[in-house]
Design goal:
mainly alpha; 4 helices; 2 strands; elongated
Amino acid sequence: MAQVTRAEADAERANREVDAGPRVADGGPDAGHRLALAPADARLVDCAARWMGMFGRFQVLAGGLAIALVVLAAFSHWLSGALEDASESATSPPVVTLGDVSSTSVLIAAVSVLLFGALLARSGTLLIDAAEDLERALHVKGETDAELFDMGLRRLGSYFALESLIVAAVAAGLAYAGGLL
C-alpha cells in the first residue's frame, strides 16, 4: 500500500469540497445564498415537501368544510325560525326538537367550530407555503437557495406552533365537554 502524506490527503479533501460546491458554513463566495445538499438529502427534502403540500391542501379543504358547515347550520337555523313563525300550528308536534339545549350553547359550539375551521385552513396554508418554498429552494439551478430554504423552515415552524395551539384547544374542549374542567 502506498503511504499518503497529510498534505496529499488535505489536497484531496479540498478537491472534493470544490467539486461539491461552496457551503454556507465555509464562508465561500456564495455564503448566505447557496447551500450544498447531497443528492440523497435533496431527494428526501423534495419528497417531504410534496407530502407536506398534499397534507396542507387537505387541511385547507377540511377547514373550509368546517366553515361551510357552520354557515349552513346558521342558515338552516334562521330558516327554521322563519318557517316556524309562519306555520305555527297547535295541533301537530314539532318534527325535530333540540331538547334542553340553549341558544347560547349552540352559539358557543358554532363559534368554536368556525374558529377551528379558520385555524385549520390557516395552518394548511402555512404548510403549503412551506412546501412550495422548500421545493423552489431545491430547484434553483442545481443548488439550494439558502434564503428560500430558511423561509420554508420558518413557515414550517409557524405551522407546528399553530398546530400545537389547535391540539391544545381541542384537548381543552374535549376535557370541558367530558366534565374534567
